Amino acid sequence: MVKSPWFMLALGAIALSGCTATESPSVNSNALPLGVALAQTGNAALYGQEQLQGVRVAEEFFNQSGQIKGRTLRLVIQDTGSDEAGAVNVFQTLINGDRVIGIVGPTLSQQAFSADPIAEQAGVPVVAPSNTARGIPEMGAFISRVSAGVEVVAPTAIQAALEINPNIRRVAVFFAQDDAFSRSETEIFQKAIREHPKLELVTVQQTQTTDTNFQAQINATLSLKPDLIVISGLAADGGNLIRQLRELGYQGLILGGNGVNTVNIFPVCRRLCNGVLVAQAYNSENPDPMNVKFRNAFAAKYSQAPSQFSAQAFTAVQVFADSLARLSQAKNLSELPLADLRQALNQEILKGVYETPLGEIRFTPQGEVLQRFFYVGQIEMSDDGQSGKFRLVKRVERQP
Ligand code: 1QQ
Question: Which residue ranges does the record assign to the Leucine-binding protein domain (predicted)?
């Protein structure tokens, strides 16, 4: 279903914000509209569901704090689907119809490369909660991210695999060639493997995010007798690949990238997810005080521990909330025209230092996140395969 951006814009202004275009919420109303553009349908919804939980906890948490001088944040949440066209439509609707002050989203890097240029051109700050491919903040002055890039997260995990099994020598790599993040991440994994004096990259297998059967690639790989298999893909394909590797007899370590860093792969590979190592920018066991607060707020609402995608989405809203709080000390927000508020907010975002569930973060002038700690988790499934968790294996400090 293809709709023109203008149709979507009109629809967004009338139907989604519940009022006509002329009455669309202005920044003068008490609640400041913050756009949330995440995948609630399609293959990336496995991440989007966790992200939505994170932003909902954040909305309550920061509105209760009263930190924005009596103002509140009102999240304008829209489903981008999992493709580029959906993200582009939602960005246009949020910017022109809902007149948001900024945007949290989209879910996939693959979508960001199409949607972010629209926000950049309109002068609307975007804080990406989960885009980890190379080149995201480089899209423009208004684009930043709280999701650390693949180049800082992935190599740590290779090292952790070697600590668990120092005898690893032969490494096989799988990646989904139709996804921007997966292509970016596999490059980093492959480089780390090639440059490691003890490791040999024995094969690189290409898959698609829509694939459900990996038998041909698995058979080709297992004949090469790898001791470690490294996977860059999204949740559904990644989960199925893990399951089929085990079903076809592979017993060595499996290391997954950001795409399998979600509890939503558990129903896909069930008991066979057990033992998979995952490179993480967040682990719920992080002892930082802000994470303890977040974990408690999250557990009170959802009766479970938050995953990385929830924590990063919370953090993206926090970056807006904290920046607005600082800005409201210096300026009367109601007196700023929307374009000026968006601009001032973007500058404030880049200047800040934030105590978040991810630990302390700040941004480079380019909008790249600087984060101190990274994690390696290992999936631990219950015997019946019905539930599981990411057990913290390693917390690594990154040198500034
Ligand atoms: C990206 C990713 C995905 C796995 C996150 C949803 O890291 O697209 O950049």
Answer: 34-383
Task: Compute the distance between CA of residue 13 and CA of residue 328 in angstroms, rounded to an integer.
Answer: 27
Architecture of domain 5-149+288-367: 3-Layer(aba) Sandwich (3.40)
pLDDT tens for each residue of 82-134:
999 999 999 999 999 999 999 999 999 999 999 999 999 999 999 999 999 99
- Report the CATH superfamily, name and number, of domain 150-280+374-397: Response regulator (3.40.50.2300)
Stretch(es) of the chain classified as CATH 3.40.50.2300: 5-149+288-367, 150-280+374-397
- Count CB neighbours of 86 within 10 A: 25
Q: How far is the CA of 237 from the centre of ligand 1 (A)?
A: 13
| Ligand 1: centre distance to CA 121 (Å) | 23
Tokens of 61: 């948490």
User: What span, in angstroms and rounded, lies between the C-alpha atoms of 162 and 168?
Assistant: 6
Q: Contact at 8 Å (CB) between 315 and 295? A: no
> To test the ligand 1 pocket, which listed residue (40, 127, 131) has its Cβ within 8 A of the most ligand atoms?
131
Q: If you compute the radius of gyration of the chain from its CA atoms, what whole number of angstroms results?
A: 21
- Tell me whether residue 301 is exposed, middle or buried, using C-beta atoms within 10 angstroms of its C-beta: 0 to 12, 13 to 18, 19 or more: middle
